[in-house]
Design goal:
The complex is a heterodimer of chains A (about 400) and B (about 280). Chain A contains 17 helices and seven strands. Chain A is α/β, with parallel strands linked by helices. Chain A has two domains: about 100 residues, D-Maltodextrin-Binding Protein, domain 2 (3-Layer(aba) Sandwich), CATH 3.40.190; about 220 residues, Orthogonal Bundle (MetI-like fold), CATH 1.10.3720. Chain A has a five-stranded mixed beta sheet. Chain A has a two-stranded antiparallel ribbon with strand order 6-7. The longest helix of chain A is centred in the C-terminal third of the chain and has 34 residues. The radius of gyration of chain A is 29 Å and the shape is elongated. Chain B is mostly helical and about 280 residues long. Chain B has a single domain, classed as MetI-like fold, CATH 1.10.3720. Chain B is built from ten helices and two strands. The N and C termini of chain B lie far apart (about 60 Å). Classes of the chains: A alpha/beta (about 400), B mainly alpha (about 280). At the A-B interface, α1, α2, α8, α9 and α10 of A face α1, α3, α4, α5 and α6 of B.
Chain lengths: ~400, ~280
């Protein structure tokens, strides 16, 4: 029996370890995935010296943004992007054979006769071993593509783009602005609760804060969607109300309970002697609060801020419902954005298990995990400083 | 230059107003949902399945699903959490190990719920092959509330004065007997508080069940733990965002939100009632 107790004592540690293992195992699989969509290969003319391309290059080639091989270290030759479906414009079904068994050969002829071609072909139709055809070795998706990429287009063909920057920026914008709103409000309420409120007001406020913390995030999201979003759209006369700003406001409300509770605790811990000394020197109550209590509770207040940010960064449903979910680099608070957790929630259901998209979403989970671990360790360290001060 | 007194007055009035703002926000949210949802909830709404592409009917399968997930996740979290808390408070002493365990518990508590969803999908749904099922969702939600169960149980155990432990030991009881016969019965009401808070938490969580159990539309009730179910929070998300006819589904969304809020608030109220009621009792003993 006591053995079982000991083991169960370690259960949270084991859970965290399991989370780390599963998150990172799936996540790092991304960097073993080819840059080209799974099941497809890229072929070029046999005389083309270019040997491999990264995901961004491939995308820009097929978007007609890179138009000459010299930009990719090849000859001065115009690039001819070619999707294998184009073969059907030239040959009829009969000419390609009943089961398209002649398709590879015809594709090979096209490739061999077009010096600047880059063809995007399903693996089973690749004209392997034909003269004048070279299969392009596709690069693996690199951490640089992932962390430095500015485009998140997980279902783009031929090369899906997993650039995480717009999502990170979206997350930061939404949560930092949420804290900017929540901090003054939360601090004010914390001061009020710890210094000014009478017994009756505390009896109203404390349960209020608990209830605010208890409301499920999907209900906040719903409230945001039907009340805040139209309100914001009308007030600022925007084309859409689903914006980073709407997310920030909802997150601010959701982070309030954390900020208020932690900050109030810190202020209440200010020793009586310090307050009395300040009052005895002729300071008013207000002067005592902002010259003695707040500085004393400084690290507790910073812990409140850090924990509030942590709450905001990880929040999923409410943000998913009100921010409009456009995975683009944010330029203003009044545009739709998409955060990391919202991306996972919105896309994991459609990503085939084990594919690059699936793995990329787990990689997002890893980023989120690391951020929240840093935040909780920081908060721990800060509040330790606070409790040491009390001695 | 403002006098000291005036600036104090201004500052204090600002704080009072901020306090009122927070109360107002709560009442705004609750009031809004109660106002729109109260007319929707009736016996039929609570006991029938959605009809007409979810623009009509009730939310019965979602209520049943959420109930299944509550029971399932508590079966996972409650024994594990209570045992873990018994170990840290009664056995492990005050050394480095306990501090480490406590930090880990705190860390687990701060992990965002969407990560539990990812983890649950990777481990329970795919690696262990449970598929989208009640059992996968229950494990995921159970691990999510584990820190909450552990923390409240620890507090309940710590609230028992040491004299009870030494008294029982002095009468010749073993440590295990002391825990089973003296400590746990005394701490039980407060441990229940943790259970109730966890139920409130579990019934409102959406992100962890998105990919582990929740079904978009499934009027059939579950027959085994390997079945998918609908759940209230996910149902609210679905009908609020992706219905074919948002205008027609709005009333149902309000009703669902209200049911969800009622469950969560009831659990919170019950927990704080228990805490106040039994918190006193332990002290007077």
């Amino acid at each position: 029996m006591e053995g079982i107790l000991t083991v169960s004592g370690a259960v949270t540690t084991i859970t965290i370890l399991l989370i780390v293992v599963f998150l990172f195992r799936e996540g790092f699989g991304l960097f073993k995935s080819p840059a080209v969509e799974r099941g497809y290969l890229l072929c070029v003319n046999g005389d083309n010296p270019v040997r491999h391309l990264g995901p961004k290059d491939i995308k820009e080639v097929f978007d007609w943004e890179i138009t000459d091989w010299s930009e990719l270290g090849g000859p001065n030759e115009e690039i001819v992007p070619y999707r294998f479906e184009q073969i059907f414009d030239v040959y009829s079904d009969e000419e390609l054979g009943e089961d398209y068994e002649l398709l590879p050969e015809k594709l090979g002829e096209v490739i061999a006769s077009t010096p600047g071609i880059i063809a995007f072909i399903p693996e089973q139709y690749v004209p392997e071993g034909m003269d004048g055809v070279k299969i392009l070795r596709s690069d693996k998706i690199t951490p640089a593509d992932f962390f430095g990429g500015r485009e998140w287009l997980p279902t783009a063909t031929p090369a899906p783009q997993f650039g995480v920057l717009p999502l990170i920026m979206g997350t930061l914008w939404v949560s930092l602005f949420a804290i900017l709103i929540a901090l003054p409000l939360g601090l004010g309420v914390a001061i009020y609760l710890s210094e000014l409120a009478g017994e009756r007001m505390r009896k109203i406020l404390k349960p209020t804060i608990e209830l605010l913390a208890g409301i499920p995030s999907v209900v906040y999201g719903f409230f945001g969607l039907v009340v805040l979003v139209p309100l914001i759209q009308k007030t600022f006369s925007l084309p859409v109300g689903e914006t980073a700003f709407a997310g920030s406001v909802i997150l601010a409300i959701m982070a309030l309970p954390t900020i208020i509770t932690v900050a109030e605790d810190a202020m209440r811990n200010t020793p009586r002697a310090m307050r009395e000394a300040s009052l005895a020197l002729g300071a008013t109550h207000w002067q005592t609060i902002y010259r003695v209590v707040i500085p004393y509770a400084g690290s507790g207040i910073s812990a409140a801020v850090v924990l509030g940010i942590g709450r905001a960064i990880g929040e999923t449903m409410a943000v998913l419902m009100v921010t409009g979910n456009a995975a683009v680099m944010p330029h203003s608070l009044f545009e739709p954005v998409r955060t990391i957790p919202a991306t996972i929630a919105a896309e994991l259901g459609e990503a085939p298990v084990g594919g690059a998209h699936y793995q990329a979403l787990f990689m997002l989970g890893c980023i989120l995990f690391v951020i929240t671990m840093i935040i909780s360790v920081t908060a721990e360290a800060i509040s330790k400083r606070q409790s040491n001060k009390g001695l | 230059m403002m006098s000291k007194k005036t600036s104090q007055n201004i500052a204090f009035w600002v704080f009072r107003i901020l306090g009122l703002v927070v109360v107002a926000i709560l009442f705004w949210i609750l009031g809004f949902i109660i106002y729109h949802g109260a007319g929707v909830i009736n016996w039929k709404f609570l006991t029938t399945a959605p009809t007409d592409g979810m623009t009509g009917g009730g939310i019965f399968p979602a209520i049943v699903g959420t109930f299944c997930l509550i029971v399932g996740s508590m079966v996972v979290a409650f024994p594990l959490g209570v045992m873990s808390a018994i170990y840290t408070t009664e056995y492990a002493g005050n050394g480095k190990l306990v501090r480490f365990i406590r930090i880990m518990t705190n860390n687990l508590g701060s992990i965002p719920s969407i990560i539990f969803g990812l983890f649950g999908m990777a481990l329970f749904v795919n690696a262990l092959g449970f598929g989208d099922s009640i059992i996968a969702g229950s494990f995921t939600l159970g691990l999510l509330v584990l820190p909450l169960v552990i923390r409240t149980t620890e507090e309940a155990l710590k609230a028992i004065p040491d004299s009870f432990r030494t008294g029982s030991l002095a009468l010749g009881a073993t440590k295990l007997q002391t825990i089973r016969r003296v400590i746990l019965p005394m701490a039980f009401p407060n441990i229940t508080t943790g259970l109730i808070l966890s139920i409130g938490r579990v019934s409102g969580e959406t992100a962890p069940i998105l990919f582990t159990v929740a079904a978009y539309f499934l009027p059939k009730l579950p027959t085994s733990i390997y079945d998918q179910v609908m759940a209230l929070p996910y149902h609210l998300y679905v009908i609020a965002t992706s219905g074919t006819d948002l205008e027609a589904t709005r009333p149902i969304a309000y009703g669902t939100a209200l049911v969800l809020i009622i469950i969560v608030l009831l659990m919170n109220l019950l927990a704080s009632f228990l805490r106040r009621h039994f918190g006193k009792k332990v002290k007077t003993n």
